[in-house]
Amino acid sequence: MAEHNLDCMVCGTKLEYGTAEKEQVCIYCGGTGSSPIFCPKGHFVCDTCHSRDAIAFLEKLAHIEKSPNPMDVVDRAMTHPSFKFHGPEHHSLIPAAILIAMKNRGITRPDGSPITTEVVLEGINRGAKIPGGFCGYAGTCGACVGAGVSVALFVGATPTKGPERTVAHKATATALTMSQDDLRRCCKRATYYGMKTAMDILREEYGIDLGEPPELKSCKYSTRSRDCQEELCPFFGGE
């Protein structure tokens, strides 16, 4: 079955975003789930099936990617066919990119422990637990939370570690502040907000320079989105 990169994976029809969840059956796995997002033609793809191939690709990068530049990882993922234009896979992309780059640079955590492939995989897994559509239904963006996941894993945050927990919250909160732009959702824009925030905090708080964060007007993906708000978006590249 051919998959569509935008809107309904099954038929490409623009999805409807309701205000109340309804029970639906995934066309791929047959599992039952509740979501306020639905295809007018009756198709439903659960988050797991929607992001399975993209998550597998990120897990592969955790093992083989050699770049020390987190934006290389972001671009590699966003151009890979497994990554849809929108979707919960973006929630795992930020921790994957940040932690892979740190691992490849040999950066150790504040307690002296290394950032291993297992740490990267844990970041991907934590991001994958954040549902699709979170930005509109939970008052927080999954990609922005991904920035918090990145920092939390670096500093070793837990619910009982006050300073570590606080700096992880700072990452999420700062990314969310950037996302208060009055624009419709865009997983690419949200990823750039999260990446910039995580990279800035690591530089400012810990002296870790991971290279240049996403540049303004640098988005290469706007032509793929019928919902792109163009000049209103700080990353719109004018394609």
Q: Tell me what portion of residues adopts beta-strand conformation.
A: 5-15%
Shape: globular
Structural class, please?
Answer: mainly alpha
- Count structural domains: 2
Largest sheet: 2 strands, antiparallel
* Cα gyration radius (Å): 17 Å
The unreliable regions are: none
Report mean pLDDT, rounded to a whole number. 93
* Count of extended strands: 2
Strand order of the largest sheet: 1-2
Which series of helices and strands comes N to C? EEHHHHHHHH
By DSSP (H or I, 4+ residues per run), the number of helices equals 8
**What percentage of residues falls in helices of 4 or more residues?**
40-55%
What distance lies between the first and last C-alpha atoms, to the nearest angstrom?
A: 31 Å
Describe the structure.
α3 runs parallel beside α8. The radius of gyration is 17 Å and the shape is globular. The protein is mainly alpha-helical and 239 residues long. It contains 8 helices and 2 strands. It folds into 2 domains: 1-45, no CATH class; 50-232, no CATH class. A hairpin with a 6-residue loop joins β1 (16-25) and β2. Strands 1-2 form a two-stranded antiparallel ribbon. 46% of the residues lie in helices and 7% in strands. The two termini are 31 Å apart.
Keywords summarizing the entry:
globular, 239 residues, single chain, 8 helices, two-stranded antiparallel ribbon, mainly alpha
Helix-strand layout with pairing:
Layout: E1 16-25, E2 32-38, H1 47-64, H2 70-78, H3 89-104, H4 117-128, H5 134-137, H6 142-155, H7 162-178, H8 187-206
Antiparallel strand pairs: 1-2
